[in-house]
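We store amino acids, C-alpha cells; thus:
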Amino acid sequence: MSESGSGEKPGELVAAAIDSDSELNAIRAVLSALVPLKREGRSRVLDYVLKRLGVLSESVSQVSATVVPASTASPTELPSQHTDIRSLTKEKSPSSANEMAALVAYYVAEVAPEPYRKQSIIADDIKTYFKQALFKLPSSAKMTLVNAKNAGYLEPSGEAGQYRLNPVGYNLVVHNLPAGKGGKKKVGSKKAKSKKASRKRK
C-alpha cells in the first residue's frame, strides 16, 4: 500500500523519531544537571549556554514580547511594554553607570521575563545588559558594582561578586528616574549662575 496518504515516507518518519528521541535525551540531561543548582545558578548556566550557542538574543527578543497581565501588576511595577532593558533604560534615562547598575538590578529582579529573573547581579550582567540597553560600557564591570554599592544603590547578596538592589536603589529607579522626577531638582546650574552674577557685580 502507498504511504502517499500520510504525506511522509518511511525514512522521514524514522528520522523524525530519532530527532525526537535525541531532543528528549538532551532535555533529560539538561534537567538532571540543573535540578541540583539553586535558581540563580540555573539562570547563569542557561544564559551562558545560550550565549555560546548564539541563540540568546533571539530568545530574549521572543520572550520580551510577552505581556504581563494587568491584574498581576503592582502599583509600582513598570508597564508591560518595558519588559526589555532597552526601552526601560530609554524611559528612565540613567545619567551614570551607578544609576544604570541600579536599573539593571531592578530589571532582573522585578521586570525581566521569568526565565531571566533573579535577585542579584554579577559583573557579567553589567556587560550583558549595558550592551542590550546601548548604554556606554564601563572600563571595569566589577568596579561598577562596587561603585554602585558605595553610592548606596546596591548591597552584597552574601556571595562573592554578587549584589542586589537595596531600598535606596529601588526608590531611585521607581520614583526618582528620570532625573527631576520625585521632587529632585538640579541645583548645579543655579549655583553656577549665581557665581557668574556675583563676579559681574565685582
Observations:
- Confidence is low (pLDDT under 50) at residues 1-5, 57-81, 183-192.
- Strands lie at 154-156, 163-165.
- The chain is about 55% helix and 5% strand.
- The longest strand covers residues 154-156.
